[in-house]
Amino acid sequence: MTAYDPNNIFAKIIRGVLPCERVFEDEHTLAFMDIMPQGDGHVLVVAKSASRNLLDADPAVLGPLMVTVQRLAKGVKAAFGADGVTIMQFNESSAGQTVFHIHVHVIPRWNDVPLRGHTGEMADPELLRTQADKIRRTIGFVGFTG
Ligand code: AMP
Asked: Cβ neighbours of residue 57 under 8 Å, at least 6 residues apart?
């Protein structure tokens, strides 16, 4: 497997070098709005560890990652009155992965509303901010200072 690149986009977001619309953070994970959402309220949950994906991740990272995935799944469902939530996670390019830092997609779903394409159109930043506000309020996230 190709080595982990510490300068990938999500590593830079975790380091604070690149911006994101953050909706949750703790010691192990960071969650923010996907800039090319496949549905309204599409969130990415990123582990703060140096792994490309599930295949090279330290198993100890996976528990805290899924805890945050569950928190955001419940959060986006409640925030947007969704009918369900799709969880997706891709490993290597052949499987559709485009950013090589371990992350999980959390996408609210409504009956009869299909997903938009993967890495399709860029969302309006103002819309993402409004949606992120809704999620932050719903899950009670006010910031992380660790
Ligand atoms: P994957 O194909 O699973 O690696 O997903 C990467 C996701 O990251 C895609 O859904 C992209 O829309 C999203 N993405 C790429 N760059 C950024 C960024 N700077 N901020 C937020 N999301 C991003």
From this structure: 47, 49, 51, 102
- Indicate the domain borders of the chain: 9-113+121-135
**Does domain 9-113+121-135 sit in CATH 3.30.930.10?**
no
Answer yes or no: are the C-beta atoms of 45 and 106 closer than 8 Å: yes
Active site residues: 103
20: Cβ below 6 Å to ligand 1? Answer: yes
Per-residue model confidence (pLDDT) at position 119 = 84
As a whole number of angstroms, the distance between CA 79 and CA 41 comes to 9
> Measured from the CB, is residue 115 less than 6 Å from ligand 1?
no
Q: Quick check: 62 pLDDT over 90?
A: yes
User: 35: CA distance to ligand 1 center in Å?
Assistant: 7
pLDDT tens, residue by residue, 94-129: 999 999 999 999 999 999 999 999 888 999 999 999
The reported pTM is 0.98
Ligand 1: centre distance to CA 81 (Å): 24
- Listed residue (64, 47, 43) closest to 56, CA to CA: 47
Give the model confidence (pLDDT) of 38-55 as tens digits.
999 999 999 999 999 999
